[in-house]
């Protein structure tokens, strides 16, 4: 079982949205455009979103500014994520399954930040391995998991909250279960969409 993090394990979509707002407000002439880009590309990493921002403000390739934005985003997010609520049933789901079958986490959150957040939440021990971006892309993480477990794609499932996750599952040939976090999935819609993880282990 491969799980996304934001919107699947924790209710962090609103937190990340507000942090992006805070960062993008520094560029008022492009605020609406880059925030809309974030909304329509929710599954992209913050790196890609800041690259888009730099292009729009006419400073593509400005590594110093990009590092400043990334550092500020990370600092603000880590502080806010200390009190992030779990998706209903998520912790119970992890506790039920981690000794039964391999659980993996694949997120577009940078691995350094992800490890800190998981440690703060006390759930790192539930995952056989954790993949963040960077250094991984989500398709790359899934393919690496299939190799590690020596299984075919048909033996793996991704729990995701967005059309981006849905697309990644389709591209890698694994099954997909959608968590309804308020975002839209694409047609053909997932055969299984759940409101949260309450009771799912049964």
What characteristics describe this protein?
6 strands, 202 residues, six-stranded parallel beta sheet, globular, alpha/beta, 46% helix, 9% strand
Given helix and strand content, the structural type is alpha/beta
Number of strands: 6
C-alpha end-to-end distance: 15 Å
Q: Enumerate how many helices there are, as a single number.
A: 8
Q: Largest sheet at a glance?
A: 6 strands, parallel
- Supply Rg: 17 Å
H-E string: EHHHHHEHEHEHEE
pLDDT averaged over residues: 93
Shape: globular
How much beta, percentage-wise? 5-15%
Structure report:
The chain is of the alpha/beta class and 202 residues long. Helix content is 46%, strand content 9%. The protein contains eight helices and six strands. It has helices spanning 13-24, 31-40, 46-56, 63-80, 90-97, 111-121, 138-149, 163-172; strands spanning 2-3, 104-106, 129-131, 157-160, 175-179, 193-194. A six-stranded parallel β-sheet has the order 3-2-1-4-5-6, sandwiched between helices. Helix 7 (138-149) packs across helix 8 (163-172). The longest helix is centred in the middle third of the chain and has 18 residues, at 63-80. The two termini are 15 Å apart. 35% of the residues are buried.
């Amino acid at each position: 079982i491969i799980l996304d993090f934001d919107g699947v394990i924790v209710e962090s979509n609103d937190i990340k949205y507000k942090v992006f707002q805070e960062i993008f407000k520094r560029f008022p002439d492009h605020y609406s455009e880059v925030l809309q880009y974030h909304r329509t590309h929710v599954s992209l990493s913050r790196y890609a979103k800041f690259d888009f921002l730099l292009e729009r403000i006419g400073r593509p390739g400005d590594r110093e500014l990009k590092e400043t934005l990334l550092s500020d985003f990370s600092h603000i997010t880590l502080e806010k994520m200390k009190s992030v609520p779990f998706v209903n049933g998520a912790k119970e789901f992890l506790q039920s399954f981690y000794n039964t079958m391999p659980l993996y986490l694949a997120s577009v959150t940078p691995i350094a930040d992800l490890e800190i957040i998981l440690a703060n939440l006390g759930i790192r021990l539930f995952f056989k391995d954790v993949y963040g971006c960077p250094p991984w892309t989500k398709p790359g993480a899934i393919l690496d998991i299939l190799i590690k477990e020596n299984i075919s794609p048909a033996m793996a499932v991704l729990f995701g909250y967005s059309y981006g996750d849905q697309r990644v599952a389709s591209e890698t040939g694994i099954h997909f279960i959608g968590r309804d976090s308020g975002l839209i999935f694409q047609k053909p819609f997932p055969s299984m969409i759940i409101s949260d993880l309450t009771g799912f282990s049964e």
